[in-house]
Automatic annotation (TrEMBL):
<keyword id="KW-1003">Cell membrane</keyword>
<keyword id="KW-0406">Ion transport</keyword>
<feature type="domain" description="ABC transporter">
    <location>
        <begin position="7"/>
        <end position="243"/>
    </location>
</feature>
<dbReference type="InterPro" id="IPR017871">
    <property type="entry name" value="ABC_transporter-like_CS"/>
</dbReference>
<keyword id="KW-0813">Transport</keyword>
<keyword id="KW-0472">Membrane</keyword>
<keyword id="KW-0408">Iron</keyword>
<dbReference type="GO" id="GO:0005524">
    <property type="term" value="F:ATP binding"/>
</dbReference>
<dbReference type="InterPro" id="IPR003439">
    <property type="entry name" value="ABC_transporter-like_ATP-bd"/>
</dbReference>
<keyword id="KW-0067">ATP-binding</keyword>
<dbReference type="InterPro" id="IPR051535">
    <property type="entry name" value="Siderophore_ABC-ATPase"/>
</dbReference>
<protein>
    <submittedName>
        <fullName>Iron complex transport system ATP-binding protein</fullName>
    </submittedName>
</protein>
<dbReference type="InterPro" id="IPR003593">
    <property type="entry name" value="AAA+_ATPase"/>
</dbReference>
<dbReference type="InterPro" id="IPR027417">
    <property type="entry name" value="P-loop_NTPase"/>
</dbReference>
<keyword id="KW-0410">Iron transport</keyword>
<keyword id="KW-0547">Nucleotide-binding</keyword>
<dbReference type="Pfam" id="PF00005">
    <property type="entry name" value="ABC_tran"/>
</dbReference>
Amino acid sequence: MENKDIIQIKNIRFKYDKEYVLDDLTITIKEKKITTFLGANGCGKTTLLYLLNKHMTPNEGEMYLNGQGYSEYGRKEFAKKIAIVHQQNTAPDDISVEDLVGYGRIPHRGLQSNNSKEDLEKIEWALQVSDLLSLKKRRFSELSGGQKQRVWIAMALAQDTEIILFDEPTTYLDIHYQIEVLKLIKELNKTYQKTIIMILHDINQAVHYSDEIVLFEKDSNKIHQGTPESVINDVNLESAFQKKLALFEHEGRKVVLTV
Ligand SMILES: Nc1ncnc2c1ncn2[C@@H]1O[C@H](COP(=O)(O)OP(=O)(O)OP(=O)(O)O)[C@@H](O)[C@H]1O
């Protein structure tokens, strides 16, 4: 059975200054799938993620979440639907892992009140899924880059949303931690049915971990959306990155030579 459309973006236009960064963009995001945005620097991936997170609003066009227009959602209600894991984050000095993960509960419990039993259970669950139980009392500032990234993911999990957005979740991580984080994201999707939308720069990782890819053409406002198999080909890659890239088959998947 086809997964339903959880987000619909219809003919949106967005500009910071004079020129439109996104122009007449139409995309649908399928529920419980992993969708990855792929494309050259400056093509508008982060901009689109911020529009999806309601951090910014399109100048024109419509966006719907579960069939309801974005503008009809209040802030708190929206924060219970979509969480975001940013590329770079800062945390207060001395904060513990479990307290930081607890921030994910703010849309549910408010800023002032204490954690309820349900809040504490969700925090514990998020720590467990992210393999952080043994580190929960540790100071966040003392963790490695890979462990820190898992804490941000746990915080998004504690927010208990249907959808999680990831802005380049593997940046600054070595290949071991990159794979660890991508496997965790895959598990959130497969085991916990989260709808995932992420930005990646590594084409091979995007092919391997995504159900759907949105490939942005460079210097045009066109995108290609579909399965990795249907989107990743010589012609589309050249129009996205303005480079000829060699493609191979490996274990039934496309692999791109990036040297
Ligand atoms: N706050 C801003 N004010 C003005 N222009 C901006 C702002 N943020 C981004 N832009 C411009 O919008 C365009 C799209 O930027 P965006 O960050 O969305 O691209 P991206 O695809 O995420 O790039 P990257 O892969 O480098 O992160 C770029 O031309 C960028 O310079």
